[in-house]
Write a structure and sequence with these properties.
247 residues, mainly alpha, 3-stranded antiparallel β-sheet
């Protein structure tokens, strides 16, 4: 089975235009092909000798790419059966890299909505805790993120990063280690869904007011208002995405 990544081989020792290491680029390309179904569940990938020759890379680089994918549950390597694509119920779908690759591959509506369901479960409760437990320093950091969102908007990279930082700071303000462990997953879901909404057209609605309302509730230490504001922010974002996917 040939590896058809749809991208030109990168000379050994070189990196992608974004400075990405070769094994990371190969892992990303393979992951997108797996997630999109080009390499379906049960498919056997070429061995490292064949793959490295086809892609123009070292066997070490290909082996490292496979190791990355195996750690995330996308493939399994066994001595006699080679490297096979795992069923998608074995993928670590909440891994930030897997989330990012899924949005690059083109997620299904069901997958995107499942992420919003996860956010509806986690973030309103986290917002309520943050309102109770946030420190003055954390409130200042949240306020700075809000100012950056207002300044740059959600269509500019600076605004997207500020939005990601706002949601990460909110989880950190809970002081709960288990909730904080979800930061990279939630932050990636927030950023990826924002970018996904903009793939065909400009954003139809400015979500800044909802972020400001959530910040104000946290500033006032009003946990129930924070919970409600977080839920409204997520539900409106979900409706925006539904409309975008229907276009």
């Amino acid at each position: 089975m040939a590896i058809a990544t749809g991208r030109a081989p990168t000379p050994e020792g070189a990196s992608s235009p974004a400075g990405e290491l070769i094994h990371n680029r190969i892992a990303r390309d393979l992951a997108i092909d797996i997630i999109s179904g080009r390499h379906p569940s049960g498919a056997v990938l070429p061995n490292e000798v064949e793959a490295s020759a086809e892609l123009g890379i070292s066997r070490t680089a290909y082996r490292e790419a496979i190791r990355i994918l195996a750690a995330k549950g996308l493939v399994a390597s066994r001595p006699k059966s080679g490297t096979t694509v795992c069923p998608n119920n074995e993928w670590n779908i909440l891994d930030p890299d897997v989330l990012g690759w899924t949005f690059e591959a083109g997620p299904t509506e069901d997958f995107v909505l499942s992420l919003f369901e996860l956010r509806r479960i986690v973030e309103p409760a986290a917002a309520a805790l943050a309102a109770e437990r946030r420190t003055s320093e954390q409130l200042g950091q949240l306020g700075h993120a809000i100012e950056e969102i207002k300044r740059f908007g959600f269509e500019r990279r600076e605004g997207q990063l500020a939005d990601r930082r706002f949601h990460a700071l909110l989880l950190a303000a809970t002081g709960n280690p288990a909730v904080i462990a979800l930061t990279r997953t939630i932050s990636t879901a927030v950023e990826a869904s924002t970018l996904f909404k903009q793939r065909k057209r400009r954003l139809s609605r400015d979500a800044t007011p909802e972020h400001q309302a959530l910040f104000a509730a946290i500033a006032d230490r009003d946990s129930e208002r924070a919970r409600a504001a977080s839920l409204e922010l997520i539900d409106l974002a979900m409706e925006d995405l539904r409309r975008g996917m229907a276009d």
